[in-house]
TrEMBL record:
Its main location: nucleus. PANTHER family: WRKY TRANSCRIPTION FACTOR 19-RELATED, WRKY TRANSCRIPTION FACTOR 30-RELATED-RELATED. This is WRKY domain-containing protein. GO terms for cellular component: nucleus. Keywords: DNA-binding, Nucleus, Transcription, Transcription regulation. It comes from Oryza nivara. SMART domains: WRKY.
Amino acid sequence: MALIATGATASPASSMASELMAQGRESAAVLEALLHGASLPPAHGGAHALAAEILRCCDRALAALRAGGDAESSSPGTKRSKPATAQPATRRRRRAAASGGGAAAAAEPARVEMARTSEDGFLWRKYGQKEIKNSKHPRLYYRCSYKDDHGCTATKQVQQSEEDPSIYVITYFGDHTCSCQTAAAMDDDDDDENSQHFVIHFGSATASRSGSPPLLYDDDDGDVWRETAATPPSSRQSRSSPEVDGEESGVKMSKEEPVDSCPVPSAVSSPADVVSCSSPAMEPDLLRCLNWDDDFGDSSFVDADEFMNFDEIDLFQIYS
DNA sequence: GTGATTTGACCTTC
DNA sequence: GAAGGTCAAATCAC
């Protein structure tokens, strides 16, 4: 569909880094020519100047990339991320061995990385996992880590897409009453303010929930998110509380906001907010998603258009 | 020791 | 009774 074509958009930091790298490469090419005996254009200040420029470009590009990645890498939510993600299979084997094994233990793929547990700006604690009928993948249950401390009722459910395992559907329930949004997320919000122009708009932001194209946007991390119009009935089966009574109001997240801020308390005002993401970092099988930045940093990235996984976008339509 | 994750068991809803 | 949601003991990493 036409709305896919936007070229998906690198983050501001990424774009800046890309430009800087391109500039550095140009300088390096000139320097190489100089080293090979070519005459130096008058505009250039000599080999030393070129070398300095290359270094400067690289430094700035690295700084830009790091600035773009620090928010997530420094997130408090990642406290146990790396170790935990690196050992799940081992842990499960141990537990399975201790308990005589279990079907669920063998079913879930090894977790590789959890570096972005708090990518939506909140700290979540996993409290359950359930095999869902007619679904190949289990549903994961998270609640706000501050539930005990602040009585925060926010929860979310994450379920892997059957069509494309790299896509996860995240359903938010309840309000955050804890003001627990991470500092990193707050930084992200600041970044978001500066990256609004990177938000992809597909269709009218004020379009009605029915019949309008799904709203897709990418966050600073390049994840592509989709908000869905309705909460799956199965997700609210046991939720008779008022927080899910506002279904007719649909998703309330701001369509202008990158996803990092969409589940914030003000946005999750009551109905379940359903968001699907091509690569929520808190889930297993996300190695390649989480290496996305690495891939980006790799020279293989040459065109912003390559950032968009069009197949995933097509899948988004399946959900609607 | 602390805190997060796992997972079987239990509860609730239909 | 089935299915989904939650609890809590066991387990693990730091």
